[in-house]
Amino acid sequence: MALSVLPITGRKSYISGNRDVVMRTITFDSSYPTGGEALTPADFGLKVLDEVRPHGSFRAAANTSAIEVSYDYTNQKLIAFWGNAGTASVQPEVTNTTDLSTYSGRVTAVGQ
Asked: How many CA atoms lie within 13 A of 30 on its CB side?
């Protein structure tokens, strides 16, 4: 499966300097793969991603739990981490095949 990457109603992309700025709502799927879900520039309508900024934690639909996310620029993947399962210095990655289909959040992408 794959991430769902959708435009946000009422929000438009804009240009800042010589970069495009695009905001999207991202929802994980029902089987998270170890190492992260593919998230490419094309998912934002871009050719290059210079920066990917999550807007805080991705929350479950019922707001009962959350995951932290980080973008792996080398492999072009969005990686999910358990926000409350680690120590102060280590957050474990979500385990392989975990259903994260109720977790979503906003991301701003900057690129060309």
From this structure: 0
Q: pLDDT band for position 91 (50/70/90)? A: confident
Supply 9's token pair: 């109603």
Judge whether 79 and 91 are in contact, CB under 8 Å.
no
DSSP state of 44: G
Q: How long a stretch of residues is the chain?
A: 112
Q: How far apart are CA 92 and CA 50, in angstroms?
A: 26
Cα–Cα distance measured from residue 84 to residue 13, given in angstroms and rounded to the nearest whole number: 33
Six-digit token string for 37: 């879900």
pTM metric for this prediction = 0.89
